[in-house]
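Illustration: Glutamate/tyrosine decarboxylase-like PLP-dependent enzyme.
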Amino acid sequence: MIPAEDVLSELAALRADDLPTHGGRTLAYVYDSALPGLDDLAARAHAMAASVNGLDPTAFPSLLRLENEVVATAARLLGGTSDTVGTVTSGGTESCLLAVLAARDAAPTTDAPSIVLPETAHAAFHKAAHYFGVRVVAVPVDPKTFRADPAAMAAAIDDTTVLVVVSAPSYAHGVVDPVAPIAAAAAERGVRCHVDACIGGWVLPFAPDAPPFDFSVPGVTSISVDLHKYAYAPKGTSVLLHANADLRRPQYFASAAWPGYTMLNSTTQSTRSGGPVAAAWAVLRHIGEDGYRSLAHTALAATRVIREGVEAIEGLRVLGEPDSTLLAFTADDVDVFVVADEMRARNWYVQPQFAHRSSPANLHLTVTAANAGAEEVFLADLRASVDAARAAGPADVPAEVVAFVQGLDPEALTPQEFAGLLAAAGLGGAGVLPERMAVVNTLLAAARPALRERLLVEFLGILYS
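Result:
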């Protein structure tokens, strides 16, 4: 056997190449409360329940109680009533999947079920539609505010609609959709309305000017909220809330069609470690409502400072009117992909987002409590990065190469040709990325969405080979 300390040393060495998960320098993917001791508490709670199996709550009543208490906390925060029920899932995507599944299976007589959503809704809903054979009706949003259009959403509802989706807020731009009129339109047609509050559900209740979005809004039938985002729990926990048990029931799966135990699942998983639920429960208990109010106010204040600073930089503009702790900005005279590289060189990660309809190529920021106090450092480095990108000019990709990529048909290309394209984009070999990604992002931006998807799927296959 390899000594335990040697194994841990090897793991630490591997982690050295990762983006930092603490300190506020990675403005996507991770959420840092900056509270001392919180990671240790979560790790210890996780270890105490890691071997517990959530497959059978009657065998492990501690896990049942933990999950019920976590759900109750989320329900109280989000305007739930005594009828509100919920489930702890592995993350926002699973919560969204189950919301779509429950809606589909509650309307089994619909021949071609569809879901109506704004084009800014999270891709998890497209994934759910792909998995469960549901048609997506993506409705254009306001081209300036990026909010869902209530009239257009209402007009898109028809006899095949099983679910209407709104965001609180949308990931790309951080804006909250007008939930009330859309939920009312759904209720008028007898259709469920799901609020995707995965990223905002633990912030918006504490935001003084947040628009209404929770169960207090008539017509809202389900809400998803992630605990591993702004509840600052470790990765692997989200909550899907339903307004009542009848709405949740189709989400469950049971099968007695084999000689073993009767399978009974509340989520897409069967065996589930109790570790994530225990860690989330411990974090929620430790921080408490007053603590979360303080953390939310801290993150919101940091977001305001950063937003005002971004808008003060020549050539940059924030997209839409962000309501929470997310924002996206674009540039009029500088390549945002080059800006992202320059920020990375200064030890910041900002997330590139490709153009889609009225939303131009931009950089996304997820601001957390850990960014408080370092706003001016971030903004100084952003100003320097914009100046450097302006001096360097846009990514150097020959126009004929861009035109070639734009004309490709992903369905007609062979694996060998895909390999050549990946290599040309700097994504070949063993999946090692170049230090600077502006050229790669420029080529991916030039590709039609279907080609971009195929290229990245091929690259993912390389990574996991």
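Reading the tokens back as a structure: The radius of gyration is 23 Å.
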